[in-house]
Amino acid sequence: MDIINQTNRTILFEEINPEKLDLITLVGDVKGIDSLSDDKVKELNTNLLVRSFDEFLDKFSPSVYSFFNAANQKVVYSLKKPEGLAEDQISEIKIDQHNDFLKMLFTLIDAKRSQGISNVDFKFEHLLDMISPKKVMDDIRQVRKEIHYLYSQYEKLDDGDPKQLDMGDKLNVLFEEASKNYNNVMAMLPLAIEDIKTRLLLGGSQEENASEAVQIGLLTIGESGELKIIEAPKSDSQELMLLDESSGSALSEVFADDYGSVTDSPSAYVKDLVVRTFSPLPAVQAEVDTATEVRNYNTYLEFYKTAKDDFVKTVKPLVEKILGVKMFFDQYTSKNKGMAPSLLITNNKLDMTVKSSSITRLETYLNTVNAKNDFSDTIWFGIVPSVELETAGKVKVSRERFKGNEQVVKQDGNSMESLSSLLQVLGEYKIQVFFSFETGEETTFSNIATAGIDKYLDKCSVLTRKSYSEFAIPTVPNFTIIPKDKSGVVIDSRMLQTEYGVQLSQEKEDILRLWIEGVYVGAAYVAAGLVSAYQCPEYLRDQYKTVSREYPGVRFDIEAGDNALRVPTTMAKEISGFTNNIKDAINRKNFGFIFSSENAQLQAKDIRRITVYKARSLATSEDGFDSIYKTLVSTYVERILRFQTGDFKHENIVKFFSNNPSSQKSKWLGSRGYTNSIIHDGDDMSFIIDEKSNLCHIDLVFNGNVKNLEVMITKGTTPVKA
Fold first, then answer.
1. Which of 247, 244, 242 is nearest to 147 (CA)?
2. Which sign, positive or negative, has the C-alpha torsion 70, 72, 73, 76?
3. Per the confidence metrics, is the pTM higher than 0.85?
4. Is 496 helix (H, G, I), strand (E, B) or coil?
């Protein structure tokens, strides 16, 4: 570890935010240049390298842009900043930890993980309504509670008290969050919807979707002794405010002033809405124009549903990328941080990266970080998600008799041609690339459980028997966060005005619902994250007693023994498992990096996480395809050999493999028995120097299977002693 201090830096070939800098732009013109300067590598790391999910959100600031179209009265959403529009006509919506859609997905993933139950039994609907106005309002109530608590503490303290100043800082942060929504009509709509419902129905019977008009009264006994509820006498607003003058009244004034200061085009209605939302006071029973309020409610609800529907459809591809990055980092669960994975994001689309004008820039960068004896910035793994997977075409229908699926043209898929062009370059720099296929129902665990893996084998056949095949790792299946058929979200019900008062409609056609159409995560993110995680000795020490801090996990074979059960993913089980026929077919072909959702036990404990079933590249071997660890060990040995022999000097190679106790081979042989030993029991390494061709042939033996490694010798000036 003192020579190579990391074996898990990963490069992601994906565009996250087109408004941010990218690899091609930062590398720039490379004509006549073999390597980038140290300053340039530092600049690339500053802009594109992330070591955690939070740093990723901070550096890349994933966003959706929106503007209003007066022609059709709709909100238009785009992942690219619209050109030709003034800045003040475009709203930027950051997709971060505070976004309700992303927050809902994180909660859902955590809930599934903690319960460990399959998709068919998981109650998705209990969490999906987190993006409904009602749940958005619940979040605001929590913020409101914090503001009121802090403000009451703030008011009790003397001016200038350091504690009061600390409280002031916290209040400023909470007010800043609240004020971001003042100018965002879309963010205010859920508040307006819930506000009208509360004022007209006073929150009554909302769970039953029905209520009658409410008039606050007093319970009295009449002259004849009968019980009566009479209408409460009206009080003027001043008396009511005195009920909570200590904080409520003052806070309402603070919010009113804040709204007036921050907003661009003040509206009395929105100002009152902000005050009522964040600082509710006992309301004066003023006359309400019920018909107008009901009409406003239904208009707001329809608009919100349509806009949210369009937003979800636009943002989903970006959200799946964000979830992918989160799942990459989530796999590293070590309590003691050691060799934590890091991710360099190109922020370019793959087809742009492999263009003839751009690929040379990538090559120059990789030549800088992967072809030197300084390994701190070396890239070991790559991720390519969303590779196109054409399946048999649907039957053409001459006449649509029933409403069917709309044929949506898939965007941003990576072609097999682009992938092979990339592999041609990455193979030269010994980067093992995890690639997964387009997300959707066709690439899930359920699909493999019924259809098997033949379509993946057929698709990958063009990448076999190539010089780069051992660096190509197809990963299947993709992970389902929300299944397509369980992705309905109930927004709310329309409001009706009847002779008995106002109520929420119970008719099926009046319940407004949107369909997310499923959310998925590419398997490549999880596979690369898991393999990067178990490179770290500290990560392995959480599961194994005999782990050496001297070596990374390059020789760790996740397929061997019970390793897959000891080192599972963080993803919850999805299905009950593959049939024996499907598993037999996978075992016969030994193809790909395949995840498994099986019932399993380890030391009498149920394993409720998805585990690795196969970990193979596209390099062919006697029993199908080769294990990915063999390529990784080969790359590691070659890099250590280059470093210790001064770029493969003849006499130093002989010393490296000699039986001298101080030779590197002897040290590796002497430290067998660890989970992460470089040479395991049954392994060996030997070399033959071919003087004529000036090549050193190294045989790496793994449990009797031989892997060949060739290096070009640098001739010395002194005779060699064996």
1. 247
2. negative
3. yes
4. strand
